[in-house]
Amino acid sequence: MPNITYIDTDGTARTIEAEIGATVMETAIKNDIPGILATCGGSCSCATCHVYVDEAWFEKLGPLSLEELDMLDTAHDLKPNSRLSCQIPVTEAIDGLTVRTPPRQI
Known about the structure:
By secondary structure, the protein is an alpha+beta fold. The chain has a single domain, classed as Beta-grasp domain (Ubiquitin-like (UB roll), Roll). Helix content is 17%, strand content 20%. The protein has helices at 24-30, 55-58, 66-72; strands at residues 3-7, 13-17, 50-53, 82-84, 97-100. It has a five-stranded mixed beta sheet. β1 (3-7) and β2 (13-17) form a beta hairpin.
């Protein structure tokens, strides 16, 4: 199973084994990762699962959909490497992915 490292705003890193077929958001929720609210449950309609993808990984995840781009416009503290974790599927190809949570989601 691929590992994902979540780093919260105070710098605490948690590395989690993720299930193939889940999303980065679902993995965070299942493992009580702070800073990812996922109010809409992963339907790409709230932006409360916003994360910063480590720069080395950003291009490897592929392009953002128009729906994700629209929702990111509603997120706080956007950066060029912002993504919605509900839109990042867990595959073997993301083994080692690192994401950071923003200072606030809402």
